[in-house]
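In this section we turn from sequence analysis to structure. A common task in structural bioinformatics is to predict how a protein folds when a small molecule is present, because the ligand can shape the pocket around it. The inputs are simple: the amino acid sequence and a SMILES string for the ligand, here NAP. Study the lines below before reading on.
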Amino acid sequence: MITSLNDKITLNNGVKMPGFGLGVYKVEDGDTAIHAVRTAIDVGYRSIDTASFYDNERGVGLAVQESGVPREELFITSKVWNDQQGYESTLKAFDESLEKLGMDYLDLYLVHWPVSGKYKETYRALETLYEEGRVRAIGVSNFHVHHLENLLADCKVKPVVNQVEYHPHLSQLELKAFCEKENIQLEAWSPLKRGGLLDEPILVEIGKKYGKSAAQVILRWDIQNHVITIPKSIKTERIRDNADIFDFKLSDEDMAKIDGLNKNERSGSNPDDF
Ligand SMILES: NC(=O)c1ccc[n+]([C@@H]2O[C@H](COP(=O)([O-])OP(=O)(O)OC[C@H]3O[C@@H](n4cnc5c(N)ncnc54)[C@H](OP(=O)(O)O)[C@@H]3O)[C@@H](O)[C@H]2O)c1
């Protein structure tokens, strides 16, 4: 289990990834993105999760440059979007992402969604990029067990990460167990259910005990479950507070209470219908 904001988890190819990071979905490019990423880096975040679809890779890249933190101390993730999938088009999408970010490599590149009939070719392009040393690790996002089984049957390079919707209303037990068995690290998107869990009485109640907010309780639950988490915020205070979760530990009883909130309820799309 990670014990600090930039503590790292060793992925199945030996690359180390921070267990906590900033997500930037729906963060407007330009000043907003630059402010959010700069703030996070100043607070001590070392991992940033963007995607070509978020249309803010330029802002993320500028913030990284302005931060003065050496590139090799940061962990930058991007993703190939659905309409870019396919072998050649993914290679092109990767070049475009790097150009926008102003970087010469990525730490992690993900297949954003398992587009039916395309995701294996897309992943093959990621393997090429990995073999060429242009990305340090490759993985997938929004893959159910059946997508992973299908990919694992053919791939040369095992995905290091599966980034999926994961929060106390969607605890993905079967997928989590499968990923653990295969040594594929689970990473939580929408860990706060986009704000939809913050009034949950049980979480508020547990938080009171530790002097923490419901958001902090959820993010701590992720860490104690060995799930990488990347909450998004553009607000300085929240960026700081969300990372302030390394000075308490949820008891087994409280972990079980949070587990009990699961309803298999998504805030985003089901990968089988998207
Ligand atoms: N792979 C995928 O398909 C996929 C899909 C969705 C998301 N993601 C990634 O996962 C990241 C996180 O997911 P998300 O952005 O969907 O949702 P989230 O992190 O669960 O929630 C973000 C929302 O919660 C608010 N918030 C953040 N911290 C808060 C706090 N301490 N108290 C109250 N409100 C708070 C934010 O508002 P403010 O900004 O105003 O603070 C924002 O509206 C994304 O940014 C993206 O990087 C990936």
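The beta strands are 8-10, 16-18, 22-23, 47-49, 75-80, 106-111, 135-141, 161-165, 185-189, 228-229. As an exercise, try to locate the residues that line the NAP site and compare them with your own expectations.
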